[in-house]
Amino acid sequence: AKTFSEQIGKLAEDGWQSSTILENCRRRILDSQRESHWLKQTLDESQSKLQRLRTDVSEIRVGLESE
């Protein structure tokens, strides 16, 4: 049977490992949030560019049809 001090040592070690795991999870969540924000900005910019290109194409079509 384990002694009381061995059990306390094991619990302390388990707690330390849990704290480390929790901190790593928090870091990953923050990284994911940053990446998600960056991806949303990139998507918004791409959609804006696409809309401008569609407008340009429409103007070109109108110009060609009137010739």
What's a quick, concise take on this entry?
Helices cover 94% and strands 0% of the residues.
Protein described:
With 67 residues, the chain is an all-alpha fold. The chain contains 1 helix and no strands. It has one helix at residues 4-66. The relative contact order is 0.05.
Major sheet summary line: none
Can you count the beta strands?
0
Taken as a percent bin, the fraction of beta residues is under 5%
Radius of gyration: 29 Å
Structural class: mainly alpha
Mean pLDDT: 95
Give the fraction of residues assigned to helices.
over 70%
**What count of helical segments does DSSP give?**
1
Distance between the termini: 96 Å
Low-confidence stretches: none
What is the string of helix and strand elements? H
**What would the principal axes of the Cα set say about the shape?**
rod-shaped
